[in-house]
Amino acid sequence: MRIPLSWLAEHVDLPKEDTADWLHAQLVRVGFEEEMVHGGELRGPIVVGRVLEIASEPQKNGKTIRYAQVDVGEANGGVRGIVCGALNFVVGDRVVVTLPGSALPGGFEIAARKTYGHVSDGMIASERELGLGDDHDGIMRLDELGIPGEVGEDALRILGLDDQAVEINVTPDRGYALSIRGVARELASSVGAPFTDPAATARAAVDVGTPTGFPLAIADEAPIRGRIGCSRFIARIVRGIDQSRQTPAWMVSRLRLAGMRSVSIGVDITNYVMLELGQPTHAYDLGKLQGGITVRRAHPDERLTTLDDVDRALHPEDLLITDDRGAIGIAGVMGGAETEMDASTTEVLIEAATFDAVSIGRASRRHRLISEASKRFERGVDPAVADAAAARVAQLLVELAGGTIDTELGAEVGGVPEMQPIAIPVGFWSTLTGADYTTDEARDALVSIGAVIDEAPDAWTVTPPTWRPDIVDRESLVEEVARIVGFDRIPSALPVAPPGRGFTRAQRLRRSVANGLAAAGLTEVLVAPFVTEAQARMTGEEPLRLENPLDGERPWLRTALVPAMLDTAHRNLGRGLTDLAMFELGRVFHAVDGQGTDALPTAEARPADDVLESLDRLPEQPDHAGVLLVGERVGKQPGRAAERYGIADAIEAAERVARTLGLELDVRQAQRDWLHPGRAAELLVGDAVVGVAGELLPAIAAATDLPRVVAVAELDLSALIARARVTLETRVIAPVPAATQDLSTVVPVDVPAADVRRAVREGAGVLLEHIVLVDDYRGAGLTEGEKSLTFALRFRATDRTLTAAEASEAKLAGLAVATERFGARLRE
């Protein structure tokens, strides 16, 4: 919003010096964002002159120049000779003269210069050169435009070109500030200065009577969310206007500074009032209307040509202004071409209405038609200011366009809704913010924004003003107190958290897992949960599809972490990072019975309870831990070959996760369609499968442009955390040496090594400190269908050095259990 300073000064006092910077600072203080300062490009001396003589001189190039003698006043050098190519001015005209030393917009410096055989001691300016309009073919003639000013007077002051405008950013919840009225009220609250309400001034300045007799109706049969599209409509009529009259220079200047160009006297007045009061208005050519006006929704297949000469297909939700022939405007957005004012218009009907923000916002976006009116309506317009806006437009049409107000014919339908009072305990403003705001400060702040207070000893009842629909609860009132009195009063000290707060058990364990993997050299990545259908189905689960995805190419929710991590690996490999060790901790999504719907309800009305219940069935969302390893684990070095990541590294990363949670994983061979056959393992805690590890199927790796060997692991972190030990067991390092032995067993090939290892561990008892599989042999010396598993065993007692016999006894006890369960025998 751009605010011309001279306009603002009519409603609140401004200082004489540094006004623009001072104003920005005061508006920032009450919550607006500072943008920039507009205006000030013109620099004097620019004065009023009178043409005394004109000599026309044809040139060799066929052009005729005019050498004029112009009186600019004794104080400015008296009569000056000026060369000009325009032909529309005559002797005796008062004109605007830019003297040497002045500057025009764009940094155009004026100096005395010799041209066409004369010294041109200045320049006679056009409207465009002064930034007042688009007319560049002729000189600006002050007498023709009815602009006062004596010879030698400062033309910048007379034309309002010495003004500036400050620009602020207005947030969507503060639509009232898209007006001089709203900003002036905020500034008055900020500095404690008196505020003159232009709406009250407009009501008092003109008597529009209580006209009746014009057919006017609101017939909204298709409200959105149960809200009627139009709650108030005021129609006023002004007759005998002269559209040929020029818009006054001061109004043109203010409109220009506010970011709007001058069009015609009628349009300029409606735009001026919108900027002044925040209420958009529209003026129809009364002679082009057929019958009365009805506000309704669009009919099927209805069309309208709007003021921008675009033929638009209307939607049944569009709120329209219609007469007996059909649509004549999209309410709150743009009028229709059929009832547009033109040069022949002498009678106008002024519309000032209150439209529903949702209806206007939807129509504006539906037609891709963002207007100054729609921008205000969709943010909320004060419903109580419509009558003042209609009166103000009528007043200006009388004063500037020579019209007469028809006090008998007109209409008004609807009224101003009552604002809901809000109860707030006395002192709540300090309780909520921690700042020591006094009762008087709170009262003054709320009164300054226009609220009405009914005070009681313990609580107040505060009724917000009609222009503040964003104030709906007591917290909103506290925000206004803090904003007006000063946010700087709120202490910056952080509050002390009450006992018992902080991370939950699951959050602490999840962070421990992340720290453990990072400490092992893996890098954490964060991947979006939205995937392609192929990625969602890669692990064999039925995925969930989003109805309104952020990315149309990835509308599915992930069922596992690894598939989307493949894209991350591909992206990094493409940037030259060939050795990757990554992990992610995140949620996956599993469908539940009866979930989802093919027909989502619209937002026009509240869905039925059974519909809401069906939408409330959310998918299961367990936490998972995903690991992806690709490239070289150990790079090639002198005397040592490179070692590439493989299944063993993926299993080791999974076991690290389990150890962090005080658990131990069992590993057994498995088959997964997306993992390499023979290089896939299930990870178990007890009898529960909690994850998988292995190497990616080569075909999938090739399809994603990854190396042939990609080691991966995926764990159900929620299941692991649920089984995690509350207190981890620690083992004391004994001061005695260990006894090591190997155990080679022969078992059927279909017996998992993990089961044999578990049996040996259980049978060996407490003396067995560590067991690891070091060899899996199948070949000569064994019969078909057998394999040899060799385990490295480490035994230790806490109180003595074990003898070889004790270690052998424990080893054989472990073998006995394996023999009992799987028929294992000692390999000879």
So how many helices? 23
Q: Rg, please?
A: 42 Å
Note the main sheet.
Answer: 7 strands, mixed
Strand ordering within the main sheet: 28-32-33-39-38-37-36
Low-confidence stretches: none
The shape is elongated
Q: What share of residues is helical?
A: 25-40%
> Between the first and last Cα atoms, what is the distance in angstroms?
92 Å
Strand content range = 25-35%
Number of strands: 43
Q: Decide which structural class fits the backbone.
A: alpha+beta
Q: What is the average of the pLDDT values?
A: 89
What is the topological layout?
Layout: E1 2-4, H1 5-9, H2 19-29, E2 33-39, E3 46-58, E4 64-71, E5 79-84, E6 94-98, E7 103-104, E8 108-109, E9 113-115, E10 118-120, E11 123-124, H3 142-145, H4 155-159, E12 164-169, H5 180-191, H6 198-205, E13 212-213, E14 216-219, E15 230-239, H7 249-257, H8 265-277, E16 281-285, E17 293-297, E18 303-305, E19 311-313, E20 319-323, E21 326-330, E22 334-335, E23 348-355, H9 357-366, H10 372-377, H11 386-401, E24 404-414, E25 422-425, H12 428-433, H13 439-448, E26 452-455, E27 459-463, H14 474-485, H15 505-519, E28 523-524, E29 530-531, H16 533-537, E30 544-545, E31 556-557, H17 562-574, E32 580-587, H18 609-615, E33 623-630, E34 632-634, E35 643-644, H19 647-660, E36 666-669, E37 675-685, E38 688-696, H20 698-703, E39 710-716, H21 717-723, E40 739-748, H22 753-764, E41 768-777, E42 786-795, H23 804-822, E43 825-826
Helix pairs in contact: 2-5, 6-11, 7-8, 8-11, 13-14, 15-19, 22-23
